Amino acid sequence: MLTNKIRRGASAGFTLAELLVASTLVAIVMGAVYTTFVSASQVWRFSETNLHAYHGARTAMAVMRNDLQSAMAGAGHLMDGDRRSLEFYAVVRPMNPELGREPRIMWIRYRVRRGVGGDGVRLYREEAEVRGQLPLVTSDDDGGAIRRGRTESFELTDGLKGFEFRYLWVRDPGDQMSAMVREDRHPKGRGLPQGVMISMKVDDPASDTGETLFNSIVALRGAPSHR
Q1: Is-contact 166 196, C-beta < 8 A?
Q2: H or E element: which one contains 90?
Q3: How far is residue 9's CA from residue 2's CA, in Å, rounded to a whole number?
Q4: Distances (CA, A) of 226 to 46, 181, 182, 213, 220
Q5: Which helix or strand (DSSP H or E) is residue 125 part of?
Q6: Smallest Cα–Cα separation from 147: which of 163, 162, 129, 126?
Q7: C-alpha dist (Å) from residue 39 to 44, 153, 207
Q8: What global pTM score does this model have?
Q9: What is the bridge-based pairing of β-strands 180-183 and 152-160?
């Protein structure tokens, strides 16, 4: 009787082979759970980053459109720009809260910089309150002597893959076949161009090219009808 009880107790346990099989199954299940968790975390982080880039690009585009549409035609000869930067004078509300919320004459400059360690392109907006008279078109003053307040810099967005300005002219608006001219440089003294095209690129893995291009053409008020 004692021998039978001992045998029954021994047969109630797990063999080494059973323990190895169970351990293997647990390891497989835990590995699958970990892989799923890591993949979900990566997708969430990428989606959050991509959403940030989209939101930043759209916000920056709205700010630039508002500023350019408020550019002063009387100070158009002071506009100076290339593909990576653009400065001009406009009547807008300052971004610096210390200057209040009422529109005033502001010097504005947009410029881009490459992020630290190649972390995309960053877009900045600089502004300063104009505290003196602007030179007339007939003046020899190129704007260097204009009295301005302290320059403040604001980062509008980061993580862009690309950014550029282009300056648009129509040679003859009466000729329907006259093509619009796009230029990479707008020197001082020309007056306002008829339009400014803004282009921004952001990452988009869902597209065939891996990126999305934002384009916006801003028509400038008070610009000449043709060049």
Answers
A1: yes
A2: strand 85-92
A3: 11
A4: 46, 11, 13, 28, 12
A5: strand 121-129
A6: 129
A7: 9, 38, 20
A8: 0.72
A9: unpaired
Pull the structure tokens for residue 221. Answer: 């008020």
Q: Where are the domains of the chain?
A: 43-219
106-118 mean pLDDT = 85
Percent of the chain scored above 90 by pLDDT?
A: 42
Beta bridge partners of 89: 107
Buried-exposed string 21-46: b where 16+ CB fall within 10 A, e elsewhere:
eeeeeeeeeeeeeeeeeeeeeeeeee
The helix/strand/coil state of 77 is: helix
Taking the CA of residue 158 as centre, how many other CA atoms within 13 Å lie in the half-sphere pointing to its CB?
8
Strand order in the sheet with 121-129: 80-81, 85-92, 104-114, 121-129, 152-160
Cβ contacts of residue 21 below 8 Å, gap of 6+? none
Q: For residue 78, which of 140, 171, 170, 159 has the smallest C-alpha distance? A: 140
Cβ neighbour number for residue 88 with a 10 Å cutoff: 24
